[in-house]
Amino acid sequence: MIREAVEKLAREEGVVANQLHIKWIVPFHAGEVTRILARSKKVIIVENNYTGQFARYLRSETGFAAHGHIRKYDGEPFMPHHIVNAVREQLAGKREISIPAHEVIV
């Protein structure tokens, strides 16, 4: 889903994006994660919870604070357009935390 959103951002918006999927938080490889994130112009964390637990954990372990957040906490999965729309809003400076709504398609 994130890979599809990255491709769509490049194709439709001309936005060069990437993803860092962190599989294990214990042990957390703070040095490696920090080196990767420090090379990024903007870091937006995509999380499926209300409070941004991983963003807080990342900041506590590395001191690195993300530039933006995309959170979803209605029990439904993210769709690529949720991420694309949220990134578009955040790059335009409209918000720092985006919470996509799930659409019911019948």
Structural topology:
Layout lengths: L1 H12 L16 H9 L5 E4 L5 H10 L5 E4 L8 H12 L5 E2 L8
Helix pairs in contact: 1-4
Summarize the structure.
This protein is mainly alpha-helical and 106 residues long. It contains 4 helices and 3 strands; from the N terminus they run ααβαβαβ.
Give an account of the 3D structure.
The chain has four helices and three strands; from the N terminus they run ααβαβαβ. It has 106 residues and is mostly helical. The protein has one domain (2-98). A three-stranded parallel sheet has the order 1-2-3, sandwiched between helices. Helix 1 (2-13) crosses helix 4 (80-91). The longest helix is centred in the first third of the chain and has 12 residues, at 2-13. The chain is globular and about 45 Å long. The two termini are 21 Å apart. The model has no long low-confidence stretch (mean pLDDT 93).
- What is the number of strand segments? 3
Overall pLDDT score: 93
Strand order of the largest sheet: 1-2-3
What is the number of helical segments per DSSP (H or I, 4+ residues)? 4
Helix content: 40-55%
Share in β-strands: 5-15%
- Specify the structural class: mainly alpha
Low-confidence stretches: none
> Largest sheet, if any?
3 strands, parallel
Q: What are the secondary-structure elements, in order, as H or E?
A: HHEHEHE
Shape: globular
What is the count of structural domains?
1
Termini distance? Answer: 21 Å
Radius of gyration: 14 Å
